[in-house]
Design a protein that fits this description.
Layout (H helix, E strand, L loop, with lengths): L25 E3 L15 E3 L5 E5 L4 H13 L6 E4 L27 H8 L11 E4 L5 E3 L2 H10 L18 H16 L1 H6 L4 H22 L12 H20 L11 H11 L10 H11 L26
Parallel strand pairs: 1-2, 3-4
Antiparallel strand pairs: 3-5, 5-6
Amino acid sequence: MARAQFSAETSGGGAFVRQPNRFTDRVTPDSDSPPGGGPDAQGRWPLEPGRYRLIWCRACPWAHRARIVRNLLGLQDAISLGTVDPIRDERGWRFSLDPDGFDPVLGIGFLSEAYLATDPDYTGRVTVPALVDTRTGRVVTNDYPRLTLDFSTEWRSLHAPGAPDLYPAELRPEMDALMAEIHRDVNNGVYRCGFATSQAAYEEAFTALFARLDALSQRLADRRYLMGEAITEADVRLFTTLVRFDVAYHGHFKCNRHKLTEMPVLWAYARDLFQTPGFGETVDFDHIKRHYYGTHAAINPTGIVPLGPDTSGWATPHGRG
């Protein structure tokens, strides 16, 4: 069997099985803790503007969705932002983009320091996004799917005036089912293609990925967004994979039945979102390419980062809406 990128997350059949999220506390106005306190008995931290720091990487799709939702809801003043370098080595995510290599608020050089401050016995892979308490330096959560939904619901009192409802109550049953399919076959599906170490595991993931993309193309053929005429969390989750598709997943992860630019409905839909305030300005194609091609030595042992593709098409008219 081929060498795995993450051996601890590879099954005996060569399939990539993503590790569970270690930290799953939540920030909520229902916390029993007083202001400035830690989590209550149910793992609920008090909702306080300016207290928590979102650590993200411009290259990471899971972290990217948190950055976009924070922007769309107008939570920039309520939640500060720390950015790690796209190049991750054996020590994990680094704050080397900051002066002297330390996050200016948390005072740490590696995100792993916050993980170990929370759980000294933690041995898993350190991941972004992570919401960190600036008072204690502890990780509140790295549960990326719950984090963005909480931004929409638990943080509502701190939203900017006129902020969109990204998780409408009446749409949640349908949205939850759709987002589960998108996660399994698309968001995580590209990784299941790229990190597979057997032909059978790769082909299974590849087939499911493009079957789902075909179904999503059909869904979006007669509606502007996944749930209708308004952007929701589902669109954010799909966008962060689509915007990385041609620059990383098509070549690096062998997701090469078609490029995004060769799937007309999805390409127009992705450009529509890219050109929406809160989306395109958070995309960094250089960081994306340098991360994927420069840190997955089992897949790209030379570490060469491709010069293409041309990304100027993202600014062209999309013809939707």
